[in-house]
Design goal:
The two termini are 21 Å apart. It is built from 15 helices and 18 strands. It is an alpha/beta fold. Helix 5 runs parallel beside helix 6. 32% of the residues lie in helices and 19% in strands.
Length: 473
């Protein structure tokens, strides 16, 4: 059946243009459409794909026409020698039969529907992290990739890093003995997003309804339209999924975990900013796995009141540490990994980077989804862990210090993280009694559910605005 432009543009359920994975010849060009031209799309996806042999970026799409124009101008300045078409609506890209794959670098709230639409239209997909904006969406994305037999890569690019592969292999081989616990952390200094008394005026070249898509099209009371929506629950998921999904993914990879934690507990707050944001800028989470717990922390405030430096944990500001009986291993958000013995002496280093975009193209060219370093299911399994932590927080209430200490008493390693959290608050003269203490959630992996907590499930299922509804696949 042929898919007409009018039919596709009016519906989110389209007949796929082709089903089976295609194998490309060595000299055959793979045409890419880039969807979303913010920081990642314009500064990473477009140049990275453009620099790969046998790949052409042939279409750009963004509801902000100034972004497509600016991106095309940069491509032309770097010697573009083929036609690149600009679109406001991503569905114009999906309908084109000459485009083989798309990369999705929109804000979080568009990831699910854009991926599902692309799969329905027969495109292979590279989709940025976090995979989904709501936990339920991730499973629909996995189902769409399977139903339409599409190759879908998740943007957790550390999976393509040889250094991390070697560090994980070395640690799992028992070189430092038994693994005791893993600490993931993402400390990026962020600024207030502002708090306006009047709605922010919208530019003329900006299709606001289309940009909002499945999210609520509320008036904007922050200072910037675009990236700062990451710090609202309406369109974003806070640092625990914005950055932390990378670190949780590495921890899950190391431990060979596929399920959700048996329990999840989070606490924190949005301190000092007094702005239009509502996600926490300070958060700690315990993912209570029975064998090896995973702990997570994020600090968007600097290390102290009078400093501009990010909070470090042992060796860096963003990464994971693996505590073992005989020492610990640090894996930074870069090719750098290092192992220490119990006396703090460096005994091993790794520092070779990889190329996640090339890995995706290799899989598309070979028509083999098993070549992917981080396929869509892998992305979903890691992203849903972060969703569980956020849901715990969102169900929480303000709690005093005694209540916090009681809540962490059964989790010794988390109690240590809580002590570091308290020191961080003191360094900024923040009253710890202002902390939001989350609900302790019991997770049901098989059903991707939270036992005995309907309110938690509502956050996992999410809500979507008509006509941008996510199909139940």
């Amino acid at each position: 059946m042929s898919l007409t432009r009018r039919t596709f543009l009016k519906t989110s359920v389209a007949v796929p243009m082709f089903i089976s994975s295609s194998v490309f010849g060595a000299n055959e060009s793979i045409n890419i459409g880039v969807i979303g031209l913010g920081i990642r799309g314009a500064s990473s996806h477009v140049p990275e794909f453009s620099n790969l042999s046998g790949v052409r970026v042939t279409a750009l799409a963004d509801p902000d026409k100034t972004r497509t124009a600016s991106t095309l101008k940069k491509m032309q300045e770097k010697g573009l020698n083929h036609q690149v078409d600009q679109y406001e609506d991503m569905r114009n890209v999906f309908e084109r039969t000459d485009i083989h794959a798309v990369s999705i670098a929109t804000m979080n709230h568009w990831h699910a529907l854009a991926t599902i639409w692309a799969c329905e239209a027969g495109k292979h997909v590279y989709v940025e992290k976090p995979l989904s904006h709501f936990l339920w969406e991730g499973r629909q994305m996995v189902n769409a990739a399977k139903k339409y037999d599409r190759i879908v890569q998740h943007g957790t690019q550390l999976r393509s890093c040889p250094s991390i592969m070697e560090a994980i292999k070395w640690t799992k081989a028992g070189n430092l003995g038994k693994i005791l616990y893993v600490t993931a952390f993402a400390n990026k200094v962020r600024q207030s997003i502002g708090k306006r008394t009047e709605p922010l005026p919208l530019p003329n070249d900006f299709n606001y309804d289309l940009w909002c898509g499945p999210a609520q099209a509320d008036s904007i009371y922050r200072d910037r339209i675009q990236y700062d929506c990451s710090f609202t629950w309406n369109m974003g998921d806070g640092e625990s999924l914005n950055q932390g999904v990378h670190q949780i993914d590495v921890a899950r990879w190391l431990l060979g975990i596929e399920g959700m934690p048996r329990r999840t507990l989070s606490m924190g707050g949005r301190f000092l900013f007094n702005d239009a944001g509502d996600v926490p800028n300070t958060q700690i989470i315990c993912y209570d796995y029975p064998e090896v717990p995973i702990l997570y922390s994020t600090y968007n405030l600097s290390e102290s009141k009078n400093s501009q430096k990010a909070e470090n944990f042992r060796f860096t500001s963003v990464g994971i540490t693996i505590d073992c009986e005989g020492g610990w291993v640090g894996i930074a958000h870069s090719p750098y990994c290092v192992a220490y013995d119990k006396n703090g002496k460096i005994i091993q280093k790794w520092s070779v980077d990889g190329n996640h975009f090339q890995n995706f193209i290799n899989a598309v060219r070979n028509g083999n989804k098993n070549d992917l370093a981080s396929d869509i299911l892998c992305g979903h399994l890691s992203t849903r862990i972060g969703h569980a932590g956020n849901i715990s927080y969102r169900l929480g209430q303000q709690a005093n210090l005694a209540e916090q200490k009681k809540a962490v008493a059964d989790y010794p390693y988390f109690a240590e993280m809580h002590e570091r959290y308290l020191k961080h608050l003191v360094a900024h003269e923040i009253d710890p009694n202002e902390t939001i203490l989350g609900c302790c959630l019991e997770c049901d992996t098989e059903n991707e559910y939270f036992i005995g907590n309907e309110a938690a499930y509502k956050f996992a299922r999410g809500s979507h605005r008509k006509p941008y509804l996510i199909p139940n696949l």
